Amino acid sequence: MKRLVNWILDVGNGNIGSVVGDELEIEISDDLLITTTNDPLSHFGTLCRSKFVAKHSRAILVPTLERVEKVNDFVLTIFSEKKNEYLSSDTTC
Fold it and tell me: Which domain of life is it from (predicted)?
């Protein structure tokens, strides 16, 4: 986890990556990617189900908010338990 955090900080600080035109290209090490399958989201779900407790301190890095929502929706389908919604103190009921 510390290695991932340091990598993210290096990307944010501009220490990793190269500018190509108006875009930044960043190479991601294979050990930070799910590369063992044609369906990484399904593979991720299998990992979540089999080792959920061990994965609680890991991060999921995706390129867009749309992908974040897709991963969140997928993970929520894995756990079919009763859902609870917890409101913060500044939320109106």
Answer: Eukaryota
